[in-house]
Amino acid sequence: MAEEKKYEGYPKYAPGTHVSTKDITERKITYTWWEPEVQYAWSLGPAMSRFLQELKAGKIVGKTCNKCDRVIVPPRMFCEYCFGPTGEWVDLKDTGTVETYSISYLDPDARRIEEPILIGVISIDGASPQHGFMHYFGEMKPEELKIGMKVKAVWKPENEREGSITDIKYFKPLKGGEE
Amino acid sequence: MTFTEKQTDPTAPMHWRGDMQADYFYPNGVAGDKFFKHLMEKDSFLATKCKKCDKILFPARLYCEDCFEEIPDEDWIEVPAAGTVRLFTVATINAQGKKMEEPKVIAMINIDKTDGAMLGIINTKELKRDFIGVNVKAVFRPKDKREGTLKDILYFEVV
Fold first, then answer.
1. CB spacing of A39 vs B18 below 8 angstroms
2. ipTM, 2 decimals?
């Protein structure tokens, strides 16, 4: 019977040819680069459709669940707690509270960046506690961003809005006395 | 439970459309790099000979796929960019599933003097013809326009 070979982990040195970014950009090596067209369409449904339509008009709307006594945002056609149909549409304020946040020094392509991206979840005023959505933060230094701080939406000019969550550019700190 | 509420405004957004970036990057590796750099300068292919199996591997590679023997540099050989059709199909739709204006004949071509084969497009108008066993040769891009990919082979033409 052959002697059983003990697994010794990864080799200290992996043989091979190392390729640098320069080898690719200066075409020192041959390669195939392909950018496939990958498109998707996500069916909004009645609730999301109206939510985006109202964002275009500069307003955040939610929907109530009378049985669970809560105001849901983003609006849903059914309550995910009691599975019953939701009730009335309600207009909410464009202010809120920071629930969680992240300071990212990586961009969406995982490249290192100097100016960090501030992102987090905002619970919207007028909705039930801890009901809200994710968005960017702006007009603040990374160290100013704190859980529990009050923020206000900064909207795109009306003619640039297209019925997207990015019709709100970002949320800025809400100073005392401001509405 | 029923939902009586419906979106009745025909101008309201119904779908969210988006693009996903999914780039594909394939470096050819040591043997592939040598193969394609040769292709950029010459109108022929490179293959490698495995002395142990007495086989000529095409496309060229560093190791024999049957016996795993390493192929030394002196066993790289130049072979003509021509061959014999082993299999073929007539494609009428493109990769997106859309009907193409002109159908394409795609063939598996045994490269002459080797035991290997490659896929290629046969430039022909005879869509009803049986191409099996037909001799074809590769037509390349002009040398100054080659970029070291398979697209440098424009098509194969019947000899």
1. yes
2. 0.78
